[in-house]
Each structure stands twice: as C-alpha cells, then as structure tokens.
Design brief:
Elements lengths: L7 H19 L4 H17 L13 H29 L5 E7 L5 H13 L3 E7 L4 E7 L4 H22 L2 H12 L1
Antiparallel strand pairs: 1-3, 2-3
Length: about 180
C-alpha cells in the first residue's frame, strides 16, 4: 500500500524539528553535522510513516509573548500551591480525573494544549481522545463541582490562547465570538 505524497511545505516543519533535535542530541550545530542530520531526517520521513504536521499558516507573536509570560507565572504560582498542599495537607488532598473537550480538532493544538497543561504543576494529561478532542486530566485539590468547572475553564482558556497564537482563522473567529458572548 502506498501513502499519498506529502508536499515539502507540509513536511518542512517536521524535517526542521528533526534536524534541531539531531543537533541538540549531539550538542553539535556545525554545518557538517546539521547536513548529516538533514539527510537522516529526509530518510526517516521517506521510509517511515509520520503523519504530516498540519499548520494553519499563521503565528501571532503579539499573542505568543504574553502567553509565555502568563504561562511562566502560572508555573510559579502552581508550584507554590503544590508545595503548600504537600507540606500542609499531605495525603488528605483530594484528586480527580476530569474530561475537558477542546474546541480545536487539530492535532498540533490538542497536543500543545496538553503539554502546556502538563507542564503546570498539579495537573497531568493521562489520556487524549483524538476523535472528540477530549483531554482527560488528573488534577490535584479537586473537591467540588465548582473546582471541576474552574479546571475546565482554565484548560479552555489556555487552548484559546494557543488558538490566538497559531489557530486557523475560523478557530480565532470562534474564540472571539465566544469571548464576546
């Protein structure tokens, strides 16, 4: 069975990423090593089936910088909260697994949202349902329905930020419409 040919424009982000990873693994970004990494990346992309990275074709730096700063602040605050819970409450902390259905069905945005959530202490993505774009999160300190609703709102807020940064125009319009309502 032959797979359909993927255009270079679609495959380029994957190839660039593989070359960057190659250089980082060898801690050598010399032209010769990067050329060899490029040859390996092309060979890997041609020999093995790797799904194409579907990009919207847009990246908004004006949303990316504030998003990164807010993310760093959330990491610091959540770290302090987890420390407090561990020291003061110990094993009495209630946990929950919460399902959050996302707006976007793009693999890149679902993955980015899951990674951002997992990097913030106190929550971890334990399962992803690609067919419905649902993240299942294990979260600390969830003891009421209000806490569940707050967690869902937080995840959807992070997803909205990522959509503003790199979502499709339709997704950005949907986020704007939702915010205006």
């Amino acid at each position: 069975m032959s797979r359909r040919r993927i255009s270079l424009r679609q495959e380029l982000p994957l190839l660039v990423w593989l070359v960057i990873v190659w250089g980082a693994l060898w801690q050598d970004f010399s032209p010769g090593n990067l050329l060899f990494g490029t040859l390996l990346a092309v060979a890997v992309a041609r020999l093995f089936y790797l799904p194409p990275v579907e990009l919207s074709g847009r990246f908004n730096i004006l949303y990316a910088v504030p998003f990164a700063l807010v993310f760093l602040a959330k990491v610091v605050v959540a770290s302090a909260q987890v420390l407090y819970l561990a020291v003061m409450r110990g094993p009495q902390v209630k946990n929950a697994v919460v399902a959050v259905t996302l707006r976007s069905h793009q693999d890149l945005l679902v993955t980015a949202t899951g990674h951002v959530i997992s990097l913030i202490p106190g929550s971890l993505v334990v399962e992803v349902d690609r067919s419905t774009s649902t993240l299942y999160l294990h979260a600390l300190n969830i003891s009421s329905a209000e806490d569940v609703d707050n967690l869902r709102a937080e995840v959807r807020s992070i997803e909205a930020g990522l959509i503003r940064i790199m979502g499709t125009r339709e997704e950005v319009d949907a986020v704007r419409t939702e915010a205006a309502a």
